[in-house]
Amino acid sequence: MKGRFPMAIEVRNLVKKFGAFAALDHVDLKIRSGELLALLGPSGSGKTTLLRIIAGLDWPDAGEVSFDGQNALARGAGERGVGFVFQHYALFRHMTVFENVAFGLRVQPRAIRKPDSAIRARVKELLDLVQLDWLADRYPGQLSGGQRQRVALARALAIEPRILLLDEPFGALDAKVRKELRTWLRALHEEINVTSIFVTHDQEEALEVANRVVVMDKGRIEQVGTPSDVYDNPETAFVHGFIGESIVLPVEIHDGVVRLGDTALNIAAERGSAGPSKLFVRRHDMQVSAPGWGGLEGTVRRVRTFGPIQRADIAVPGRLGETVIEIDAPRDRELHSGDIVGLQPRRYRIFADQP
Amino acid sequence: MSGGLRRNTLPGFGLTMGLTLTWLSIIVLIPLAGLFLKTMELGPDQFWAILTSRRTLNALKISFGLAFCAALVNLVMGMIVVWALVRYRFPGRRLFDAIVDIPFALPTAVAGVALTSLFAQKGWLGAPLAELGIKVAFTPIGIFVAMVFIGIPFVVRTVQPVLLDLDSEIEEAAASLGANRWHIVSKVILPSLMPAVLTGFALAFARAVGEYGSVIFIAGNLPNVSEIAPLLIVIRLSEFRYADATAIAVVMLVAAFLIIFAVNRLQRWAQVRAPAQ
Fold it and tell me: Is residue B36 domain-shared with residue B121, that is, in the same domain?
């Protein structure tokens, strides 16, 4: 099943506008040959637009896209050697599963089209790969969502693409099937050796499946990195807030002192930072301690207990009124509504507010 | 209800089923049975003689032949109209969309009179055509024109929702698999529309076969030349030859059943290929 060399993709200064809305705002990105990359972001972040431009289904207003150094924008969708899997599968309803998968081979120009026997063999091979050979004669309308998704994948792979693009591949599936297909996609990627990019708004999916993750927001790339990179070392406030669960407190930095309201916190500010900022702490990095040593303090509002942890809403006073944050505490530390507790962040990041 | 019967969750089955059967019997089945009974008065030889008489055969040929041609023209033109209405945005689109329904709504006699005056030798279209030596009104061409007129909405209205429903993503999928424009139209779009197109064709055909009002004004009604089967039935009735009339009617009825059967099969075919929601 090993194809030709997987392709490297480079996107330079890409701009795409829909009316006044900038779907892509000067995007640069290098995608390495053979990697499995996730484009992660909320809806409207431009991730699908980027994918469609790479596929040749949309055209940028400005910028360049190249495959292995060659200009891809000069070629139409069908000439790029790109397999595209649509969120809603886009299967041909009037064709059997077999004919759906065979489509890309049957529409090739006569000069390079394979003989019918070779096409049949190839389709059979692909259906085996996606474990659907027993459904070859069914119509898409008779399949479950997960099966349709796999047919769509087999159809995209039929043309031996050197790049595989998947738009929210698991978006329309239920949670269980989604989990199964995730693992399966990872394994498949290792087996078929094509450069793959998938779009998702589900951080768990991106972090679990991809080699590298591109976090996008409002048409810009916020961060590119390995899953542990973007989780542990978020570079922007957006990434910290979007990936993982974060406690966010509005703080003010003055002469290297971090203040929450009138209280000076005993945490260090990054050098050079000043003015209104946000303190980000992962929930599991916030420890509950005794009050009164002059740090972060708050009043317990509500306590819920389930399993080994208790979760508490804690109101932290600040200059602009209270901020209620949610923290986890071990069961052996008793918390009651109305208690005043101290809070000690083990790890934290401070990002200056965007003007 | 006895223990052996499964209780239906929706009450009122007995009542609605009873009403349905009674109503359908009064409205449809009894009149049709009467038709067959009346035909029975004829012996098989007589029946055969009536059907194979030159005038009956010609009337049936004209009705079915011209209806078939008209439905074919509607199939092609209807699809072009649908394509334009669904795929493009242009000023007056909604107006055109509404105009398609006029043949549905217009009393057929009005349509007949309008078409006749239009295509008569001194009419707006009839005069220039007459100069070219083409006579439309009072010839079989006139029948064909009337049948095209009344049939067009059937094709448009059956294909339109299906084309609207056709996801533009499937065209993009085909394009990214290397299909050119011709492949996309011939292998993806047309086959997806095919059940709807054939249904529209069958409906337009059935309507044209049975059409009476608009045709008789423009046909000229010359026996063996431009006399349609429904008109021949009316003529036989006015001559008090009821059995003759019903014999022709039975042929048309059987044809109607076959068409309905075909439409049903087409719709079931379309359902198999529709996504299971």
Answer: no
Stated length of chain B: 277
- Domains in chain B, number: 2
In single-letter form, the type of residue at position B54 comes to R
A49 contacts in B (CB within 8 Å)? Answer: none
Task: Summarize the confidence of residues B210-222 as an average pLDDT.
Answer: 85
**Based on the domain organization, do B137 and B22 belong to the same domain?**
no
A5 touches B at CB < 8 Å: no
Interchain CB contact of A88 with B (< 8 Å): yes
CB atoms within 10 A of CB B25: 12
pLDDT (tens digit per residue) in A61-71: 999 999 998 89
Residue B253 sits in a domain of what CATH number? 1.10.3720.10
Same domain, residue pair B94 and B108: yes
- Residue A27, SS3 per DSSP: strand
How many Å separate Cα B201 from the centre of its chain? 7
pLDDT tens per residue across span B73-131: 999 999 999 999 998 888 988 999 999 998 888 888 898 888 888 888 888 888 888 88
> Which amino acid is present at A300?
V
In chain A, whose CA is at the least distance from the CA of B168? A90
Give the CB-side neighbour count of residue A264, counting CA atoms within 13 A: 7
> Which residue range forms the structural domain that includes residue B182?
43-273
Please tell me which of the candidates B169, B178, B274 has its beta carbon nearest to residue A86: B169
Chain A 199-258, residues with CB within 8 Å of chain B CB atoms: none
pTM exceeding 0.80: no
B131 and B229 assigned to the same domain:
yes
Indicate whether this complex's ipTM tops 0.90: no
Q: What residue type is B267 in one-letter code? A: Q
Contact across the interface for B276 and A142, Cβ inside 8 Å:
yes
The reply to whether B175 and B215 lie within a common domain is yes
CA distance A281 to A30: 31
Of all residues in chain A, the one with the smallest CA distance to B269 is: A94
Across the interface, whether the CB atoms of B175 and A55 are under 8 A apart is answered no
How far, CA to CA in Å, does A200 sit from each of A123, B41, B134? 28, 75, 65
pLDDT at residue B5 is higher than 70: no
Domain shared by B129 and B186, yes or no? yes
- Nearest CB to B178 within list A94, A108, A140: A108
- Asked whether residue B50 falls in the same domain as residue B29, the answer is no
pLDDT along chain A (355 residues), means of 10: 71 91 91 92 91 93 91 89 91 92 91 90 91 90 89 92 90 80 86 90 90 93 93 90 86 82 77 80 85 78 83 84 83 82 86 77
| Domain identity same for B247 and B133 | yes
- Domain assignment present for B31: yes
Q: How far is B88 from chain A (nearest CA, A)?
A: 19
Q: What is the pLDDT of residue A220?
A: 92
Q: Is A87 left (phi over 0), alpha (psi -120 to 50) or beta?
A: alpha
Q: Flag whether residue A108 sits within 8 Å of chain B, measured between CB atoms.
A: yes
Name the interface residues of B facing A (CB cutoff 8 Å): 167, 169-170, 172-180, 183, 187-188, 191-192, 194, 272-276
